[in-house]
Amino acid sequence: MHVPDGFLDAPTSVTTGAVAAAGVALALRGARRELDDRTAPMAGLVATFVFAAQMINFPVGAGTSGHLMGGALAAVLVGPWTAILCMAVVLLVQGLLMADGGITALGTNITLMGLVTVGVGWGVFVVLRRLLPARTSRVASSAAVAAFVSVPVAALAFTGLFAVGGTAPVDLQAVLVAMLGWHTLIGLGEAAVTGLVVASVVATRPDLVRGARPLVASRDLEIRTPEVAAP
Length: 231
Description:
mainly alpha; Arp2/3 complex 21 kDa subunit ARPC3; two-stranded antiparallel ribbon; 2 strands; about 5% strand
């Protein structure tokens, strides 16, 4: 979904750049509450994994491409604020060093693949975590569903931006059909990858998964609470 230079007009690119900058600034403050001796090393691993996963691109049409995004996966593993920073770093490196996405479209790409996928993915995950039974075994499936939902939502967000400030001579309906169609399929792959990765980590070290920590803490509390002897 990397948006190239010139695909959106200047006002739209400037606006998304401002939104991205504000989002990253908030993430810098919010990440202070998330980063600890367990989350900090995970953040580096997550950024590396997302960077590698996004190197596999599928042509969507009209100058855009689709690929695994990793926003929901990052949010579940290291928390939403740290995930935004991870995604921003990945997209910055890709734009500056790999020519993947335009420099003037960097704000757009961070907004779509950083803010939208992380925000939607984390929101869906938290809702499912509250609705489903409080078991760590549910974390992976909830993360998979969150990842699936986040991808077409990001595609819809891109289509909305294109409707407002698109410069390419492509019919809006064609863009919508192509983006939603391809990214629904990509979402299935993203769900599978996210579920497998989260399940693997939860099975070995659930305390390293930020989204699972409330469940791990409640489980430990139940185990360690001493029984009160009857008088």
